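USER:
Working in pairs, take the chain set out below, taking as long as you need, and write a paragraph about the fold.
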Amino acid sequence: MDVPTNPLPVTGRLAGIDVGMASFATPSDGEHVDNPRWGRAAADKLAAAQQRLQRAKRRSKNRDRKREAVAARHRKIADQRRDFHHKQARALVGRYDLLVVEDLIIANMLRRAKPVPDPDNPGRFLKNGGRAKSGLSRSISDAGWGRFISVLRAKAEEAGRIWIEVDPRHTSDGCEVCGHAAPENRVTQAEFRCTACGHGPTQADEHAARNLLRAGLALHAQAP
């Protein structure tokens, strides 16, 4: 790691940090950060502004004003998201000496679900969860996970904190007690219960964050 430009005092605290839908971020010590859902909160006003734009006469000054009104609403959402990311990143970096996050490939998570041809009905397709995937993609984009992780990493490096990214596989559905991993372990988005050893119920995001911390510490111990 480069020499920190803004070193912070040692706190003695370590954390895995899970990003999610129910909570924006959850450190392994259980301090949840609520998800503001800026896009959802502004959806009605944004939709109304877009409708006014569509009704405005083309190539008119009124249409230009309506277009600027829509752009202004998008800028406000982006500004709120950016300010929140920086505020939360500063708080987390100030609190923990070591931070572990998932090595997420956001672009892959935002890809549309592939069509699944129906073998019994040529020209038709089976349900592929596309609607749910679309909703998840909108929520991920609204939260701005990728941008937040970039901001958090930059601030961690500036402060001289230890930064670790781990493979995200089975951090959410793998049991912290016995290691059994299965989608069925996630009873709901918010609850984890191991179907093999019965561990739980426990809060799912906190459980995932503890898995992240354990994996991160294992990697850190192996580092030269």
